[in-house]
Amino acid sequence: LVVFLVLIWPDLPADLRIPLTGYSLLLTATAWRAGVFGPYAAAGGALFLLSDALIATGIAEWPQAPAPDFWVMLTYIA
């Protein structure tokens, strides 16, 4: 989380930096706690974390994989 935020920070819109930091902390805690409920819940938490990381790279206007919406939706379907 910290490494990702440090890397993405300069490219984020200034008005989203603090809210994204708070959201990232909550999301990471949620994904971590999902592991208590077994491997499927842990995988779901990790996929949710991945999907939001992909969305954040789009907000920061980082280079995207081809069809970024497809990859985000794939994490939801899985």
How would you describe what is shown here?
The two termini are 22 Å apart. The chain is flat. Helix 2 (17-34) runs antiparallel to helix 3. 72% of the residues lie in helices and 0% in strands. The protein is built from 4 helices and no strands. By secondary structure, the chain is mostly helical. It has one domain (21-77). The longest helix has 21 residues, at 39-59. The relative contact order is 0.14.
Short note summarizing the structure:
The protein is mainly alpha-helical. It has one domain. Helices cover 72% and strands 0% of the residues.
List the helices and strands and how they pair.
Blueprint: H1 2-8, H2 17-34, H3 39-59, H4 68-77
Helix pairs in contact: 2-3, 3-4
Helix/strand-derived category reads: mainly alpha
- The helix-strand sequence is HHHH
Share in helix: over 70%
Please count the beta strands (DSSP E, at least 2 residues each): 0
Average pLDDT taken over every residue: 91
Largest sheet: none
Shape: flat
Total count of domains: 1
Using only CA atoms, what is the Rg?
13 Å
The helix tally amounts to: 4
The amount of beta strand, in percent, is under 5%
Distance between the termini: 22 Å
